[in-house]
Amino acid sequence: MNQAPMNQAPVKEAPVKDAPASESAGVRTRAEDLQLLEWLMEQFRPEEELQWQIDVDEVNSGWHDLEHVGRISELVHRLGDGDWLVIQTKHQGIGGRYAQTMSAGETYHVEVAVYREDGVHNFRMGYGEDSARRGNIPYTMPEEDQFLGIESTIDVLSAWARGGTFLPGYGAALHIY
To answer: Which residues have C-beta within 8 Å of that of residue 57, sequence separation ≥ 6?
Structure first.
């Protein structure tokens, strides 16, 4: 079992482009509105091709394309106690990634991972740097500070979908398979 505080995990910042400026003073044209809408959709599009599946009441949805990061919120809200959501890159070789979350009723167990040449680097997410020291032992329940609230779960999964960034304030306990 290996453990790594959040600041030792690979971090990749997703670029954010400036919103298109209006050429008219205060009144937008239809073309400008469409340009702004296109820009907004680009901000919420995953960095790479992702797919998701959800297990609700032991019924699996099968794989579906994740067309925009905003969909993650709706998927997490569908989870009941014991239900799972998995999001992954379509490419599952070296460099491929996945994230999974399980509902524990009021809280969520969240893990993110990347396939590397030396194995799968699986990070169990939690609150604060101390959660990184709690460990990540497969087939065991997380410690109390490794369960996230719904808003934190959505934030962590959305940041991951936009390029794998770990957000400040969270810890990540590493296990390499």
So the answer is: 80, 83
pLDDT, tens digit (0-9, with 9 covering 90-100), for 44-79? 555 678 999 999 999 999 999 998 888 999 999 999
Q: In the predicted model, what is the mean pLDDT of residues 117-142?
A: 89
Hey, which residues does 167 pair with through a beta bridge? none
8 A C-beta contact, residue 136 and residue 6: no
Q: How far apart are CA 135 and CA 107, in angstroms?
A: 18
- pTM of the model as a whole: 0.73
CB 173 within 8 A of CB 126: yes
Q: Distance between CA 86 and CA 157 in Å, rounded? A: 10
Question: At a CB cut-off of 8 Å and minimum separation 6, what does 74 contact?
Answer: none
The torsion of the CA quartet 60, 65, 69, 72, rounded to 10 degrees, works out to: -10
Beta strands in 41-96 (DSSP E): 50-56, 59-60, 64-65, 84-89
Q: How crowded is residue 117: how many other Cβ atoms within 10 Å of its Cβ? A: 6
DSSP string, 107-138: SEEEEEEEEETTEEEEEEEEETGGGGGS---T
Going from the C-alpha of 7 to that of each of 128, 167, 168, the distances in angstroms are 11, 10, 9
Position 144, amino acid: E
